[in-house]
Give the backbone structure.
Amino acid sequence: MKALAARRHHRSAPVVLLLLALLVTGGLYAALAPTPAGAAEASESDIQTGSDLFKANCATCHGMSAEGTQDAPSLIGVGAASVDFQVGTGRMPMENNGPQALAKPPQFTDEQVAQLAAYVASLGPGPAIPTAEQIDPEQGDEANGMQIFRTNCAMCHNAVGAGGALSEGKFAPSLWDSSPKVIYEAMVTGPQAMPVFNDANLTPDEKRDVISYIVAQRVGSPGGAELGALGPVTEGLWAWVIGIGLLIACSVWIGAKSS
Amino acid sequence: MSTHPSPTDITTYGGANLPDTFTDPGHGPHRLRRTDTDPAANKRAERQVVLLFAVSIIGTVLFLVAYVLVPPGDTAASMRTSNLLLGLGLFLGMFGIGAAAVHWAKTLMNDHERTDERHSLTPSEETRQGAVQALQEGLADANVARRGVLKGAMFSALALAPLSVAVPLIGEVGEDWDITKFKHTIWKKGVRLASDPSGRPIRAAEVTLGSAFHVIPANLEDEEHPLDEKAKAIVLMVRMDPRDLKEAEDRRGWSYEGIVAYSKVCTHVGCPVALYEQQTHHLLCPCHQSTFDLADGAKVVFGPANRPLPQLPITVDDEGYLVAQSDFHEPIGPSFWERLT
Amino acid sequence: MTTTIGRGAAATADYLDQRTSVSVAIKGLARKVFPDHWSFLLGEIALYSFVVLLISGVFLTMFYVPSMNEVHYEGPWAAMNGVEMSEAFASTLRLSFEVRGGLLMRQIHHWAALIFMASIVTHMMRVFFTGAFRKPRELNWVLGFTLLILGLLAGFSGYSLPDDVLSGNGLRIADGVVRSIPILGSYISYFIFGGEFPGQDLIPRLFTVHILLVPALILALIGAHLFLVFLHKHTQYPGSGRTNKNVVGYPLWPVYVAKAGGFFFIVFGVIALLGATMTINPVWNYGPFDPSPVSAGAQPDWYMLFLEGALRLMPGQGMEWGIGEFTLSLNVLIPAVIVPGILFTLLAGYPFVEAFVTGDKGEHHVLDRPRNRPFRTAFGMAILTAFTILILAGSNDLIAAHFFLSLNDIIRVFRVLFFVAPVLVFIITKRICLGLQRKDRELVLHGHETGRIVRFAHGEYIEVHKPLDAHERWLRVGYQAERPLEIEPPVDSRGVRRKGYRVDQVRQRLSRVFFEDRVEPVTPSELAAAHSHGAHDTLEAGHSAPVRELEGTATGGGRTLVEPVDGSAPDARNR
């Protein structure tokens, strides 16, 4: 049921903006099946493999020991959560220098991502990958999550997480298909333009409430098709296209002489 | 623009004495419908009309059945089902009647066009004079000519009478009319900065690099009308590398270790400006896209706003909590005529 | 049985008639003729969606509580449980989720509002482009325009009633706009909100405005609007047999009772279908009003989007002026007050401008084909384009997010387009109109192409054209191309300066702008000339012989080319 609903979100949003379909299905598609999160202790060998992977794939921009270069920030102290988010959603390695790194099918396997994360985490303390309990939507308070979400998140991600525009070509992505783990990691690490929401700003419980709220939005709207949940603009568009369209079609039928 | 043939052409080829314009050929021939000529088609159309009425009846029954048997329930899915069934029932119930009536009119009713004459809307001169005369007679009957004081008294009374409704209405509708309230908020020296909406006071140490906090005054709930005060007092607080921060001479002491706090009410028309992009330190308004640079005194870098966001001077108290040094030094929010008075 | 009913009906009718003279009205109106055309139904969509608004609105008032008192929500919607909100918002949730059919009625009400405004706009477009606003209907145009404005007011006040975050931010923007008004702005803001925004009074006040003041005005004006339609008798499209002195169509009873009456049910049905299948204004997504949150995609309903767009496009730098110690915010005043003011004034005043320019005092009941009035059509399209650009600008963040464009670039492009696009559209539309008129001339002069090629004895090929019949032709020639006015000289015969010369000069200059470019309809002599030329350049150049003499020599086909007798015959009959 939830998977069905999630896919409907995925489809309906583009239809709403007519021509959008082509762009979005290609651009935003990201296979993000929820994976059980775990903060298992990393072994030495994982760190070593991670280091090798890093030197082969990331060091060009981030420097040989992740100290950062002119092109890319230092990764010392960004934590495992940051790596898991950036690499696990395919944002890193970055394809080309656009306004922001786009999500795409990840380049590494889950295991490789974990090894990279272990390596970066070993460079300095930073936010860890959340535990399964921290991100369990069932344990969160949806109503509290709603209040936190709309104060801290909705201005960029839209009231129910449909996404929105930022300045100069950047955008806040839709959260329909983001797994609870990815949402949590984004909050603690503040990827790209997004600010950081540390545990003092939003406590871990509050973060779980937010996740609970976001996940609850995926069951669809009581009123019927959601029209992308983008607000009055798409409603107006449909009022013209379907409403006025149907009524004018009926008018033409009424006005035409019977054969 | 058009190509007029020369007169000689016309006389040569067109024959003599053609009119300047064409004239209306009059009504075209009436075309019969299939239902006029074919009794079977006529019968079929009748059946279709009956069918459409039947669709309407079924729709209404569907609505009533759904109303009784399908309650909205507690989940989005059950509400959706209830709404869908009721709506489809209503749609069929209404649309069926409409379609039946129209189909009937189109196929079975007499469709010979009729012609009504139009008459000029301007009444005859006689009528008009009659109207003028009636007015003049009435005026004469009223005996108001040369009674200037009477007329003056009447018009004065009529003009003044509405005041007894208008004056209290206008007097009361704006409550106390004290527009100086626009210029003050409940921020004052020592008021703690608290997290919105939880109301937790915030310590400076908790505001890590790259963080954005949505802030309200900790004393907000003490107010008689918290929403009115919140509408003016909301603040966005961020921390950036102090090296990135450009501060004006007279505001040197307003930030704390790279933590700056600015009014969240847009100086354009008052939307909450809240889209903080931590890499560029730009703050974007989702309503009209005014963009402010928080690293540079919240100056406007793009969009329809003209003034920077007012800055809230902050510091920390003995317990390490962030507090305001004072109220804002200028009115927050959109401009108004008396802003600087 | 039937006779009993019949007798009962007759008795009732007699009873009523003796007390109301209703038979006089029925005799006069029952068989009143209305012309048939689909575009005449656009206004009916507006009327019927208003009726739907009244019906669904009454339902909603039974459950909605216009109060700003704070309550805590308890109900089936988990994301709101325990949340503090106004009674207005809580009652909106209750009527959406707990009242059976309540959500349907709410969605029908909101969709009907969008359809109401959209149909008013399309109806206005029809009236504008066909010139239905000309004498004697100028006042009805103004009435309709006032209804448009009242519709905006009704929509905006209703949209704000649920007291949610989205509409609350809309009200805050309205407050910001009001405050920018010089001198009185702050006081008008206090007047509206009963003190500072948001205050405690707004929702009850909006409720009164929304369910009493504005609908009563709309209802009264609709009455006046329809009364004038009856008085003037409906306009009709041009065609043979239709003149300014008659009206051709079907009688009110029974054809329009069935068609227009049926259309009400169709409109209600279609709106119900929208309400059944598509979510509108899901206030439970936005949450109860709080001045701090805001969500991406913060926009008003579509009919207010042009204002939002204007506000977004205006550059702010240097647009706030000090006048003495006072502040004048041109960055708000220009887009929110002055630009819409200009656009709406142009719209409302156009009939009077056109009447002034043409100097025409006659009554017009036959509509124009838009192509035959190139300036008007182009002007209307230009205004529509300006509105469209503003509406798109109001949606710029959604365009940016979903087409992967830069928000800032879109705004920059729209800033230019707002000025350039209407001009371009004006020029292009005017050229298209003139082109279509020439196409009409071409068709009248040379007839339809038949696809049959005929070869003459001397080897020349020619296509046979089928001449238009009298009715087809009348549609294309039965108009008058307005020409620039000729005015009397500034001084009369005795050399005295004439009064009103200045006004005439303005009128002449404007009329040149309006009518300099025009295509005259084909005249009978042109048609006759074209036919005798056989639409044939080489023959014309050679002046060798009339076409008819060549007919016999044609090797293919066998039908005539175009026969002059055919063309002039209908006219001969009419004379």
Observations:
- Chain B has a mean pLDDT of 91.
- Chain B touches chain C through 111 residues (CB under 8 Å).
